[in-house]
Design goal:
single chain; alpha/beta; Rossmann fold; 4-stranded antiparallel sheet; disordered C terminus; binds adenosine-5'-triphosphate; binds magnesium ion; Phosphonate transport system ATP-binding protein; AAA+_ATPase; ATP binding; cell inner membrane; membrane
Length: 273
Amino acid sequence: MLEIDALTKRFGPNTAVDAVSLTFDKPAMIGIIGASGAGKSTFLRMVNRLTDATEGRIIFEGTDVTALKGKARRGWQSRCAMIFQQFNLVPRMDVVSNVLHGTLNRRSTLATMFNVYPEADIHRAIEILDRLGIAEQAPKRAEALSGGQQQRVAIARALMQDPAMILADEPIASLDPMNAQIVMDSLRRIHEEDGRMVIANLHTLDTARRYCDRVIGMRHGRVVFDGRPDQLTVGVARDIYGAGADFSESATSTDLETLDRQPDAAATAKAFV
Ligand SMILES: Nc1ncnc2c1ncn2[C@@H]1O[C@H](COP(=O)(O)OP(=O)(O)OP(=O)(O)O)[C@@H](O)[C@H]1O
Ligand SMILES: [Mg+2]
C-alpha cells in the first residue's frame, strides 16, 4: 500500500530523517514514538508532502508521491489528511464551516470566497460530526469548544476529504487524559470501521501500546524499532528513548517496570475499543 524507500531529510548539516525505509502492506493503526528531535514530525510532513524530502522515495499504490507537483501534489495531500497537536482550526469560524474546509481542495476559488457549500457537503459534515459525538457543537465557533472537541473537529475536517490515511502529529499532546482517550478512541474507530490507515506520532509509550497494531521507534532520524506493541520491552524502550539517566518517565509516562508485566498489549488495546 505505502512504501517508504530510504527517505531522508537534511537541514544543513543536521540529518533529521536518515534513510528511513518502511513498508505498510495494509491499513493499520501505527504509532511512531521517539525522543524529542528524533524526526517524527519531519517524517510525517514528508509523507504528506508538506516538506520535500532531500533523498528517497514515497510510493503509494504504485505512484511515486515524492515526484508529484501542483494539483497532483494537492490531490495527494487530501488522500493523506493531516491533523496536528494544535488542531489548526479557524478559531472564529463556526464548527461546520471548519469541517467544510476539508473540501477546499476540490472547490473553486469563487465558491470558497463566498462561502458557498453544496447542501450535500453540509449534510455530510454534520453526519461526520455526529459520528464523532459533537453534532450539537456544529453552529458554535471553534474557539468556544474544549481542546478535545476541537481535535474531533479537526478529525471531522480530515474525514471530509475521505482520505486513505490520516497522519496525526501528536494529536493528544495538548489534551487532558479524558479528552486524549476520546480522541484516540475516535482515531481507532475510524481505522477499524472505515479501514483507513492511521499513522500517529505519539509522545507517550502507553498510548502507542494501547491503541496501535504496530509501533515504530525512531532515534536520531533512524528507525530503531518496528514491531508489535507487545515486543516493546524495557530494553527496547530504553534504546528508542536513549538509555539510562536520560530516560524520562514523564516524557513517556510509562512505568518501565510495568512493561514486562503486560506482555499482551494488543489484547489490551482490543478490549479497550
Ligand atoms: N524547519 C527546520 N529547520 C531546521 N531544522 C529542523 C526543522 N524542522 C526540524 N528540524 C530539526 O530536525 C530534527 C527532527 O525534528 P522533528 O521536529 O522532526 O522531531 P520530532 O521527533 O517531531 O520531535 P518532537 O517530539 O519534539 O516533536 C531536529 O533536530 C530539529 O531541530
Ligand atoms: Mg514533532
